[in-house]
Amino acid sequence: YEWEHFWRKLREEEEERERQRQEAVKAAFTNAWNNYEKRWATLANAAQPLTFAAIPGPTLSRPSSPQSLNIRTIAAFLLSPHHSSNVSPKDRIKQALKRWHPDRFGRFLAKAKAEDKAAIEEGAGIVARCLNELLHGEAKHSVN
Question: Which has the least CB within 10 A, 19, 31, 96, 104?
Answer without folding.
Answer: 19
